[in-house]
Each structure stands twice: as structure tokens, then as C-alpha cells.
């Protein structure tokens, strides 16, 4: 899913310093709660794709619970916004070094897009998720570099348009 991290032009919406130190997984879920608030206010009752470099946070957000009490507390604080804004989140993992949106957390200037918009983006925008689902399936079944071969197979078979 590195394409999601590398092609859009990002704009800074929220920046803050955490007042108290906490475990990184707790902080990741706290940021998720802020995402739900902002995205829910901007466009309620819609699906939102987001990137995160924490598999622990992604798992807890997808399940809605965690074995860690502090993470559960943050999820409980997010719940009124999830329900109230009818928030449908789809979290994907992105490596920190590839995630342009993560630059401000490392006191870096937000990088410009490094790749062109992927072919499947406009299909998703108009509500056609077939190609996107095939791509995600390949990426989740196989790790690098095999996921690239999976995508090539789809293109050769005609399931995915060639750019």
C-alpha cells in the first residue's frame, strides 16, 4: 500500500505535541481518534482510507478492542465519534519511511509526491473497488517482492489496466 503514502499531495491539518509521554501504540490510537473527529466532521457517513505504521494500532482499531487497557481507553473515547459520524475506516499499514504524511512527526518538511497517481485511484473515487480489491488481496497475500509479481499477473491476465 505504499502508493497511498507516496502519490498524494498532503496538507497539514493538525499538529500538536503530546503533553505526557505514553507508549507509542497508545499515541497511535490517540491520533486515530483525532482522525475520526476531523474526517467525520468533514464528511460524515463516508468511507475513509488511512495509513498507519503501527500494526498494533491497526489491529485494535479494526477490532475495536485491545488487550492493553490504555489502548482500549482511547478506543472508547473514539467510539462516540465513530458512531455519531457514521465513520467507516479502512486502515492500511505503511512503512514510516514511505509515509509522507508522517514527515511532520519527525520534524521534517512534508515531501512532494514521489510517484504518479496510481491507476486504481480514479476507479475508487467513482465507487469501483474491483481493481483496488485485487491489488490489496495481492499485497496482503504476498510480501515484497512477490506482491509485485501478483500485480503483474493481474495486468497480463487483463484484470488490471496497464498504465
Verbal overview:
The chain is mainly alpha-helical and 163 residues long. It folds into 2 domains: 111 residues, no CATH class; 46 residues, no CATH class. Helix content is 48%, strand content 7%. It is built from 7 helices and 2 strands; from the N terminus they run ααβααβααα. It has a two-stranded parallel ribbon with strand order 1-2. Helix 2 runs parallel beside helix 4. The longest helix is centred in the first third of the chain and has 19 residues. The chain is globular, with a radius of gyration of 17 Å. It starts with a helix and ends in a 6-residue tail after the last helix. The relative contact order is 0.15.
Q: Name the shape in a single word.
A: globular
Radius of gyration, whole Å: 17 Å
Low-confidence stretches: none
Annotation, overall tally of beta strands: 2
Count of all domains? 2
Order of helices and strands: HHEHHEHHH
Strand content: 5-15%
Structural class: mainly alpha
* First-last Cα distance: 18 Å
Oligomer: single chain
Largest sheet: 2 strands, parallel
Q: Compute the average pLDDT.
A: 85
Question: How are the strands of the biggest sheet laid out side by side?
Answer: 1-2
Helix count, per DSSP? 7
Quick tags:
2 domains, mainly alpha, 163 residues
Offer a quick outline of the entry:
By secondary structure, the protein is mostly helical. Helices cover 48% and strands 7% of the residues.
List the helices and strands and how they pair.
Blueprint: H1 2-6, H2 24-42, E1 47-52, H3 55-63, H4 69-84, E2 88-93, H5 121-125, H6 130-141, H7 146-157
Parallel strand pairs: 1-2
Helix pairs in contact: 2-3, 2-4, 6-7
Amino acid at each position: 500500500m505504499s502508493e497511498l503514502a507516496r502519490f498524494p499531495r498532503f496538507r497539514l491539518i493538525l499538529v500538536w505535541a503530546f503533553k505526557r509521554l505514553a507508549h507509542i501504540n497508545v499515541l497511535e490510537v490517540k491520533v486515530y481518534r483525532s482522525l475520526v473527529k476531523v474526517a467525520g466532521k468533514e464528511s460524515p457517513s463516508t468511507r475513509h482510507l488511512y495509513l498507519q505504521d503501527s500494526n498494533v494500532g491497526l489491529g485494535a482499531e479494526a477490532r475495536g478492542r485491545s488487550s492493553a487497557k490504555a489502548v482500549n481507553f482511547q478506543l472508547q473515547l473514539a467510539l462516540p465519534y465513530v458512531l455519531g459520524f457514521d465513520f467507516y475506516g479502512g486502515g492500511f499499514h505503511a512503512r514510516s519511511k514511505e509515509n509522507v504524511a508522517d514527515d511532520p512527526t519527525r520534524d521534517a518538511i512534508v515531501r512532494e509526491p514521489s510517484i504518479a497517481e496510481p491507476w486504481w485511484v480514479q476507479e475508487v473515487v467513482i465507487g469501483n473497488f474491483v481493481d483496488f480489491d485485487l491489488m490489496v488481496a495481492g499485497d496482503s497475500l504476498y510480501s515484497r517482492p512477490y506482491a509485485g509479481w501478483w500485480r503483474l499477473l493481474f495486468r497480463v491476465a487483463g484484470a488490471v489496466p496497464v498504465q
